[in-house]
Amino acid sequence: MRKMLTIISNVLRGGASRNGAELVSESSTLQAVLQLLAVQSEYANLTAPHDHDPDPPPYSTQCQSPSVSPPLTQTPHNAAVEYKSLMHTTSGQSSGHSGPPDRPLTDAVSSEAVVPKIACIDPVVTSDSSISEQLNTDPSVTETIPTIEKNNTIGVPASPGQFTHHKSPINLVPSPIQLIPAVAISSSNITSTDPIVSLSPSPSGSLLGLDKSFPEITHSQAEGTPLPEPQLAGARVVVSARTYADFTPQATFDIKKCDVHKLEEGPAVQAVLTREEGLQYYRTMQTMRRMELKADQLYKQKIIRGFCHLYDGQEACAVGIEAGINLSDHLITAYRAHGYTLTRGGTVREIMAELTGRRGGIAKGKGGSMHMYTKHFYGGNGIVGAQVPLGAGVALACKYQGKNELCVCLYGDGAANQGQIFETYNMASLWKLPCIFICENNKYGMGTSVERAAASTDYYKRGDFIPGLRVDGMDILCVREATKFAAEHCRSGKGPILMELQTYRYHGHSMSDPGISYRTREEIQEVRSKSDPISMLKDRMLSNNMASVEELKEIDVEVRKEIEDAAQFATTDPEPPLEDLCNHIFYNDPPLEVRGTNPWSKLKSIS
């Protein structure tokens, strides 16, 4: 009996842990079953009376009498063993070691879970060439495999093997065909890898019953129905089949109240976002972010040369402004222009090719990072603050032509102290120009913080006689609602308005600036973790059931592919030839000759 207990204990100790999610190998369990049968036979020979037939019939023709050896359930309860289960251990007396028994063996492994001595194991090869077994019982024996509980249905795939009841005798001669133990059964959630699991529900107080973190393993199957196939933990994958009808079509969000200057009321403190708008905003901002990160990579590889000012971190400003105005409106900005080129109609391929100076760039490879243009978008200007008077001139044209259009004129906090900006304020206010002056305050002008550069950091009040707004520039909905408010102000004939967008750039001023000599990495990481514009929009949509995680991941994959294709194009497209150098100097003008680097070299300019 001690040998039997030792074999069972070794099998249980050899079981893989739940964290490993590995099932006990079929070969080791088969060896253990054969050893148990051999010990039973030896025990029967020692305890059987010696006055009966010395040459009993072989096992293959006659089942052994139940009185020859006691069934496993007759194991005394004081014979405890060490049972190393998954996630817990019950120690006791094992292999000669003494100790108080915490749990009898029959609590952990019931007699129904082990092939009884009267069972017959016949190898059966199923149609899919897998090996299963059939348990056969003798009609004279009352101890049989219990009926499996039928009230706990578990939806797992059925196995081609079946448990069937036959009345044929047992054959203890090992078969050359490898047997799969009938006692190994998988659970519904495939988290149990115990080597031996009871077919019946775990008794009260049993080892499985105490472990609440792993559900009780019971199956609901009628006699003769297929048993579930063993599976590894996490093998089942739930595929989302949600349709558009499952999502919230729109939701209303509370947004931060804007600080106002010379205004009786400010923008709304609630914003309505539709599902389509949210997905479009997310895709555009993600494209902008990935495009800038790819530009960073190409610059470090020396494929992009010269000035390069990245926009990552400020995506909510560009996307929110564009969402608050019309495509027919006009926009001009400074040298951090990649994002606005995208929102104004440029493609990723054109922007990346322009950064690498290729012929397929948006400015034919002659503008670079700071000089990109599209319809109703006037750049990209390299001179600090110089775009502000130009923007006022565009607004003057809008008013002169009477098209009910406006111009958005952007500049940074570093340019806010330029004298030409105040001159522009004055003229725009006098002439009631439809101009939205927007200061993108990203906290640093090159490497100087705003507190060190400006006596007053209330940039939205710098217009003095011009109304102003201070807006959370990291929230796309705040920017959108404030831009709509400002656009309505201008279109109503009230003149210009000033907006300050409080935002943050993750990169340095340009690629030549590491960005950590005047600020800490911890400061950058804190903004990323608390105020990232893309994460903020994503959380809103997920928490309000406006999109699924899988759907947003699909967008991410598509965006990455688009960026990689654009980068491939930007590195393989040819550079512009010399004869294209002077083209497009004038718009819609007949060809003219342009002097080259010396008086006798002539180049032709074509509009």
Shape, please?
Answer: extended
Report the span from N to C terminus: 101 Å
Give the helix/strand class: alpha/beta
| Order of the strands making up the biggest sheet | 9-16-17-13-12-11
Largest sheet: 6 strands, mixed
- Overall average pLDDT: 75
Quaternary organization: single chain
- The amount of helix comes to 25-40%
Unreliable stretches (pLDDT < 50, length at least 5) are 16-24, 50-241
Strand content: 5-15%
What's the number of helices? Answer: 15
Architecture overview:
- The chain has about 600 residues and is α/β, with parallel strands linked by helices.
- Helix content is about 30%, strand content about 15%.
- It has 15 helices and 19 strands.
- Strands 9-16-17-13-12-11 form a six-stranded mixed β-sheet, with helices on both faces.
- Strand 3 (about 120-125) and strand 4 (about 130-135) form a beta hairpin.
- Helix 1 (about 1-15) runs antiparallel to helix 2 (about 25-45) and helix 5 (about 275-300) runs parallel beside helix 15 (about 550-570).
- The longest helix has 26 residues, at about 275-300.
- The chain is extended.
- The chain starts with a helix and ends with a strand.
